Amino acid sequence: MRAPGFWYRPRSWQAALLAPLGWLYAAATAQRVRQAPRHRAGVPVICIGNINAGGTGKTPTAIALAQRLTEWGASVHIVSRGHGGALAGPVRVDPATHRADDVGDEPLMLSAFAAVWVAKDRAAGVHAAEAAGASVILLDDGFQNPAVHKDLSLVVVDAVKGFGNGRAIPAGPLREPAAAGLSRADALLVIGPEKARAAFAPALPEDCVRLDGQLDPLPTGMPWGHLRVLAFAGIGHPEKFFATLRSLGADVVRAEPLDDHQPLTDAILKRLDSDAKAQGLILVTTEKDATRLPDSFRHRVTVLPVRLTISDWTPLDRKLRALGLSPS
C-alpha cells in the first residue's frame, strides 16, 4: 500500500492518534536489533538499508555499489528477502527461468548486475552466497534484522521525504527513531535534487559519513519532448517517476500510481492498454515494474531506467578499503 499523506506532515490528528502504536513498534524494533547475530560470514557483508519504510532508493544504490565493487575485481553477490516472491530459498535468481512471482521484482532486476540470492532467512542466504564464491555480499535491506553480522551499514534516505514526521509506523514512516538508526549506520546516502539534499542535514555520529546522490534517467534514444504518455508505476513513491518523465519533456497526460510491488493483473493491464489506445498515448513504466509484466505485454510498454549518480565516492571508498576491499 502507498504511504499515507499524514506521514509527511509535521502535525496531524491521525499521527497523534496512532502515536502509542508507533511507540510499541519502535520498542519492538529496538528489542530486535539488540539481539546477537546468528551468522558471521567469512567475507565482508555490506547492508544497504533504510530507516524509512520503503521508497528511498535502495535498489539503485545496490546496483551502483555492485557495479563499483565489480569494477574493483570483487565477486559480488546480493542477498534479498525477495519481497513479493513465492520462493523461500535460499535460491540463486536465474532471470532465464524465474519470474517476479517467484523471486520478487527487485531481485529479478538486480540479477542483471550481480549474482542474486533470494532467502526469507537472510543468514541462510548469506551462507549460500559465501559457499558459491562471493568475496563480498550486499545485503539488500535488513538494517533492522539481526540475523547476520554487518561489517558496514549504508542507510539510504530520500532527501525530499526525509524522515517524514519523525514518528514510527503506523504513526509515521519510520521503522525506528532516526537517531537510533543513525547511531548504527556507517554511512548515510541522501538521494534527491541538489536543493533538497542541501536542506536535509540530520545530525550524524562522528564515525558515520555522508554521501549525496541523485537518480538520473539513462539515455534511451526516445524523443521524450512533447511525447504524450500514460505513465504507471508501482514503486515506493510513484510521483518521483512521473516527475522524471516531465523533466525530460514528456507530456504525462495520465499518471497511474500503483501500490509498491503491486501485481500487474490482466485486468489492470487491459484497462491501461485500452485507455492508452483511446487517447493515443504511449504506455511508460519503470524498470522495476517492467519485471512484473507478462512477456506477451512487454512490447507494448516503454521502459525508462534510472541510475544512481554519487557526487563523491571518497568517504565510502575509505570504509570499503578498511574492510579489505580495493581496486585490483
From TrEMBL:
UniProt EC number: 2.7.1.130
Swiss-Prot/TrEMBL catalytic activity: a lipid A disaccharide + ATP = a lipid IVA + ADP + H(+)
Pathway: Glycolipid biosynthesis; lipid IV(A) biosynthesis; lipid IV(A) from (3R)-3-hydroxytetradecanoyl-[acyl-carrier-protein] and UDP-N-acetyl-alpha-D-glucosamine: step 6/6
Gene Ontology BP terms: lipid A biosynthetic process; lipopolysaccharide core region biosynthetic process
Record key words, sorted: ATP-binding, Kinase, Lipid A biosynthesis, Lipid biosynthesis, Lipid metabolism, Nucleotide-binding, Transferase
The keyword Calcium appears for this protein: no
GO cellular component terms attached to this protein's record: plasma membrane
Residues binding ATP, per UniProt: 52-59
Pfam families: LpxK
Domain of life of the native organism: Bacteria
Top-rank EC class of the record's enzyme: transferase
Family: Belongs to the LpxK family.
PANTHER family recorded: TETRAACYLDISACCHARIDE 4'-KINASE, TETRAACYLDISACCHARIDE 4'-KINASE, MITOCHONDRIAL-RELATED
Protein purpose: Transfers the gamma-phosphate of ATP to the 4'-position of a tetraacyldisaccharide 1-phosphate intermediate (termed DS-1-P) to form tetraacyldisaccharide 1,4'-bis-phosphate (lipid IVA).
Protein name in UniProt: Tetraacyldisaccharide 4'-kinase
Species the sequence originates in: Thalassorhabdomicrobium marinisediminis
